[in-house]
Amino acid sequence: MITVKEALQLSQLSSITVRSGQKGLYRRVRWAHAFEYDDVQHFLEGGELLLTSGQSWPKDKELESKLLEGYLSYQISGILFATGRYLTKCPPAALEFGEKYAIPVLEAPYHVPFVKITHAIHIEIMNRKIKKRELAAQLPSKLAKELGEANSRIKVCELLSEHLNCPVVISDSVNKVLEQSVPKETSINLPEVLGSLIPIFQKSLSDRLLDERPIETEVQVISEQTNAFVVPLQIEGDFWGALWLLPSGNDLTEEQLPILEFAAALLIDQVLHNKETELKNRQLRLELLEFLIENPQEAPAIMEEKVQELGFSRSTNWLAGLILFDENKHGPREREDMDKLLAECEQWIEDTAEVDGLCEIYENQFVLILSFSGDQNLIERELKRLQLNINKSSQEAAPVFILGETKQHVSSLAESYREAKALVPIVLYKSQSEGPYFAGRFRRELLIYGAMSSDRAEQLRNLILPKELLSERGFIFYETLKCLASLEFNRESAAKAMHIHRNTLRYRIERIEELIGDSLSSTSCQFWIKVALDLESLSNQGS
């Protein structure tokens, strides 16, 4: 097969533009198929690149959504729209669909014949299949069968090492060893040997790039003196890593060269297969979040099934939550920042033995679903560690972690998410350093404000605080009141925090007391002021 990105590098496809779903360009194209009818999914098997002029593309939003969902269920490799006659541009819903599920959405001018595109892709697919079969035919049948059935890099390493009776290594793009297999009774210092060979290999790659020559996936002699060979592994034109055959005292014969080339082709297939598996898992994650957020009534019946498909460890503790940024709710400004945070959260889940789950971006929200073993203190401690690590690496987008209550069954995740969502406006103005925030610690606030609309919140706040205090002229007094409340109305601490003289603070307090008609020393007054400040972010939800 050929990936979408590789297909776009064919000269016959030079006029095609990627409009969305760039992260899915490594999806493999099993076949290219032109269609002009709305029930094409009945004729799909998966992995097709679909081509359409848009003549029959649904104008009804519901039908369009149903059509796209059908494509998703078959895991198509992409959609190409010919624009200029029936469509002036790619349908917005298709662009959104492609970006959400990493399915490339492509655009070509209407005058480009589909037959030209499909012919080029199909010829390349067939040529690759023929080449692989020719390589396999040159191998011992038993070895070809075993390599073809190998489902991991280490298995490929072990089969090659056993058959060729020498050490075999797979390295990545920065020459880090990923897998290795050394025959029994073979003595070799792998770090030392690779240390001497890698510079020679790197120079060879650099020379090819300088001469603008492609890096071919073929066996290269690295050192004739030590009988070392390497096969560069390319994926979509990019150097991914290398397959090494290291000194064994035996020369590699012409008959054995196809073994390494065949193994290299299989390793590349494995990498692409793993990437596609990641995309399928992401689709499952998004489906899980869609039920959690969009259809909470249906979620309990679906949660168990989706969680099982994703392979999350079964645990007695489950919770859902959100990660927010800045006091004004703005997330990272660039998609790159969002992806960086996402990767950091995923790495934390992977590295924390007691925790499983997911962190995913859904409708511009960072949503967490976690299962964990141990008590509540464990998850609070680990989330605090994650928050501190993110704060260190991203000063401009300090996160606020807001979690619902821990539940004893996965079917209650929707309830945990609703609690986190209700908690957002209550704690949004608070300091990030005080988090993570758990709904269980804000039960009283949730009972008072949890179901309150922004209009009701604003109405109650205006009953407690006069308009003058909330006006532009009263800004300095309002900020002073907020500082006092955060420090339990300790005047000395407030003066230091605001860097003002005690007499200045005294004057401001007197002015505030005139406006609210009560003494800030009153316990009752202090209580209602805190209520009003709690309502601040809630009342702003509708603005």
From TrEMBL:
Residues 6-125 form the Purine catabolism PurC-like domain. Residues 302-422 form the CdaR GGDEF-like domain. Residues 478-533 form the PucR C-terminal helix-turn-helix domain. It comes from the Bacteria. Belongs to the CdaR family. This is PucR family transcriptional regulator ligand-binding domain-containing protein. It comes from Neobacillus citreus.
